[in-house]
Amino acid sequence: MSTNLVKRLYEGINEFPIFDPHTHINPQNPSAGSLGGILSYHYYTELCNSAEYDPGWWEEGISPDLLVKRIAKKLPLIHNTVQFSWFLTIADEFIGIPRTELLNPENLERLNEKSKKVMSEKGYIERLIEKSGIKRVYLTNQFYEKLEGFDCNFYRPCLRIDPFSYFADRETVLKDMSVSTGVQIKDSSSFDKALDRVFARFKEKNFAYASVSSWPGTKIHPVENTREDAVIKKILSGERLSCHEHEDHVAYSFLLVAELCRKYDVPFHLMIGVDKDVYSQGVQFGTDLVDSNNSMRGYDYLFNQFPDVRFPTSVLSDTQGLELTSSAWIRHNIFPSGHWWYLNNPTDIAREVSRRLEVVPLQKIIGYYSDAYYLEFILPKFRMYKYTLAQVLAEKIEASKADPNMLELTGDKALETAWDILFNNPQRIFKDTTGQ
Amino acid sequence: MSTNLVKRLYEGINEFPIFDPHTHINPQNPSAGSLGGILSYHYYTELCNSAEYDPGWWEEGISPDLLVKRIAKKLPLIHNTVQFSWFLTIADEFIGIPRTELLNPENLERLNEKSKKVMSEKGYIERLIEKSGIKRVYLTNQFYEKLEGFDCNFYRPCLRIDPFSYFADRETVLKDMSVSTGVQIKDSSSFDKALDRVFARFKEKNFAYASVSSWPGTKIHPVENTREDAVIKKILSGERLSCHEHEDHVAYSFLLVAELCRKYDVPFHLMIGVDKDVYSQGVQFGTDLVDSNNSMRGYDYLFNQFPDVRFPTSVLSDTQGLELTSSAWIRHNIFPSGHWWYLNNPTDIAREVSRRLEVVPLQKIIGYYSDAYYLEFILPKFRMYKYTLAQVLAEKIEASKADPNMLELTGDKALETAWDILFNNPQRIFKDTTGQ
Amino acid sequence: MSTNLVKRLYEGINEFPIFDPHTHINPQNPSAGSLGGILSYHYYTELCNSAEYDPGWWEEGISPDLLVKRIAKKLPLIHNTVQFSWFLTIADEFIGIPRTELLNPENLERLNEKSKKVMSEKGYIERLIEKSGIKRVYLTNQFYEKLEGFDCNFYRPCLRIDPFSYFADRETVLKDMSVSTGVQIKDSSSFDKALDRVFARFKEKNFAYASVSSWPGTKIHPVENTREDAVIKKILSGERLSCHEHEDHVAYSFLLVAELCRKYDVPFHLMIGVDKDVYSQGVQFGTDLVDSNNSMRGYDYLFNQFPDVRFPTSVLSDTQGLELTSSAWIRHNIFPSGHWWYLNNPTDIAREVSRRLEVVPLQKIIGYYSDAYYLEFILPKFRMYKYTLAQVLAEKIEASKADPNMLELTGDKALETAWDILFNNPQRIFKDTTGQ
Question: Per the domain annotation, does A323 fall within a domain?
Answer without folding.
Answer: yes
